[in-house]
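User: I'll paste a sequence; please echo it back and then give the predicted structure.

Assistant: Echoing your sequence first, then the prediction.
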Amino acid sequence: MKALLFSTFILLFANTLFSAPDKKGAYYLIEDAAKEPDFAIQGEYSGSYTKSSGTEAKVGIQVIALGNGLFRAVGFEGGLPGNGWDGGEKAVSEAKKANDGTVTFKKDDGVATATIKDGNLHMEWHHGQYMVEHFRKVLETSAKYEVSIVVHEPIKDTGLRRTYPNMVSREGARGQEFNGFMPIDYNNKPNHTTILPYTRLLSSPMDYTPGIFNLKEYRYNSHDDRTINTNHQIPSTISKELALYVIIYAPIQMAADLPSNYEGHPAFQYILDVPTDWDNSIAVNGEIGEYITMARKDVNSNDWYLGSITNEKPRNLTVSFSFLDPNKSYKATIYKDPKDGGWLAKPEEVVIEEKIVDYTTLYDMNIAPGGGQAIRFEPLK
């Protein structure tokens, strides 16, 4: 009797174990699992992609079906384990199956994708031909419907915006966002914006997203730990943020901070005043990676604007205002860092002062470490 009961238990247990999925949808027989449409995608894949250096890189991917069209991919640089993997860090990504049956996984940095299609692995590099064609299609379609485009994570500018002027601006370099989510050891350094005008900005306007006023205490440790993470600080000052509106050209500019950080702040007036359409632009002085001063004239008025920034070093400059109209005097409203300020000392303090100047004025400009100055010139009647 005991043997019969035991045998009956085994049969019932085996029927449960090997025939039906458990509560999570897992199968114990390949035959049963193969009935699921996701089963055909699950497996190991090998492929390669072209790095930015132009060299070919092998990669291996293990794809796991999670059910309901959701998949997890584990990527291995060099190839699959036992077949080329270099033992480095694994890349894990999840994605849902598209309507056409493909599944596309993206790396966290967004620069490479892996698509499973018809049982094969297709690797694409962010700046490869596939993405070039994708961006062009987006640009052409948006032009058809008269939609202007400001792109982040774009491909590099090639002059296509002259054919499609609805391509207003693009990021295309490490913008302000790299200051926001990167810790101090990895974010942009104070010299970053003194390099961009000599490099990235030679090709097209850039959507850097300047105008941050909350430079130090802006990031919590976590959703549950609402204390300030002191390992994050934006390497700038408010005066430098204002100067960037003149130095980094973009037809559409963003006030990138929270409205609450602008409310009641006198320095916000410069963001309200500064235009984005210029009649004349002059590089007053500069040295790549060290400092730069730009002056620009508003296309809709006789106002001039000036921005000057430095790297991590303090800077003493004598700036000529010879670009001003020789027949006019101007009220210069100056936004600058305090004498003992800088990106590490007092980044959120701003000194605002006014002077009467003209085209003969030689202005002694003292810029704090990692700081800047911004000036508006209004003609006197």
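Confidence is low (pLDDT under 50) at residues 1-24. The chain has three domains: 2-33, 37-125, 174-379.
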